[in-house]
């Protein structure tokens, strides 16, 4: 199997978060780490700093060029107010479920049915942001996220989404071999066609791709595995590769 390894991944050090299991429409269970409240707060702080910097940059520019007060008010309202209002919606739509703050903290929005979030999902999250974070300085969002155990604020509950960590799980090394539960049902029997060294390479590349948020790498690995095994599936690349690793581990244990 010709897969180029990008080099050893550095050690990880971050707080372990509660996992959630997502049952996809193809009856595949995928496990993710829920983004912690702390990470989401840090992401929000980064986003707010970016917006504040945007505001001061334009105010300073207009002041330097001597724009009249009335015109200044209109320009600030247009060039600053609109980004303030639509920042999170635009970022999540165009950046695959991530604002700039979320990207910096390695967290992202996903749907709980395993399908990619749609515009309507992002729109619901954005509309309810006013309640979640606009009232009581975000206390409603914090209480909701902590209490429901699935990393959901009100906007997530309405949209059927959650916010998860994109970092590889702590203590998993290079995605340590998976030990399946009794009664586990193999999704892709073709996983038995992969040699042990192929699976080790896949595991390492998935770890690297997740850590570096290199989704192109995950796509290339997924396509390579599909070509070797003849598997045809619409599962997202990460979910597909994790399932292949679990299936191979189970089949190897039964051999």
UniProtKB/TrEMBL annotation:
Compartments reported by the entry: Membrane
Gene Ontology cellular-component annotations: membrane
Residue span(s) of domain RDD: 34-160
Keywords: Membrane, Transmembrane, Transmembrane helix
InterPro entries (UniProt xref): RDD
UniProt key word tRNA-binding: no
Membrane topology: Multi-pass membrane protein
Membrane-spanning intervals of the chain: 41-64, 71-90, 126-146
Highest taxon of the lineage: Bacteria
UniProt keyword annotation of ATP-binding present: no
Main localization, broad class: membrane
Protein name per Swiss-Prot or TrEMBL: RDD family protein
Organism: Hymenobacter lutimineralis
């Amino acid at each position: 199997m010709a897969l180029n390894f990008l080099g050893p991944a550095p050690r990880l050090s971050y707080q372990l978060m509660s996992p959630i299991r997502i049952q996809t429409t193809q009856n595949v269970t995928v496990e993710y780490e829920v983004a912690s409240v702390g990470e989401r707060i840090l992401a929000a702080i980064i986003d707010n700093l970016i917006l504040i910097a945007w505001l001061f940059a334009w105010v300073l520019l207009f002041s330097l060029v001597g724009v009249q007060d009335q015109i200044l008010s209109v320009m600030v309202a247009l060039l600053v107010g609109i980004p303030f209002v639509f920042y999170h919606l635009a970022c999540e739509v165009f950046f695959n479920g991530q604002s700039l703050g979320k990207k910096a903290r390695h967290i992202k929005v996903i749907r709980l049915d395993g399908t990619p979030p749609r515009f309507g999902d992002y729109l619901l999250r954005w509309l309810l942001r006013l309640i979640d974070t606009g009232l009581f300085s975000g206390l409603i969002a914090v209480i909701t996220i902590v209490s429901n155990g699935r990393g959901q604020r009100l906007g997530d509950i309405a949209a059927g989404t959650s916010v998860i960590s994109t970092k590889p799980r702590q203590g998993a090394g290079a995605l340590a071999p998976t030990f399946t539960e009794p009664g586990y049902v193999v999704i892709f029997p073709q996983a038995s066609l992969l040699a042990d060294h192929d699976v080790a390479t896949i595991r390492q590349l998935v770890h690297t791709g997740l850590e570096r948020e290199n989704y192109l790498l995950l796509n290339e690995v997924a396509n390579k595995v599909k070509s070797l095994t003849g598997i045809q599936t619409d599962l997202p690349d990460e979910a597909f590769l994790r399932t292949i690793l679990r299936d191979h581990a189970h089949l190897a244990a039964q051999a």
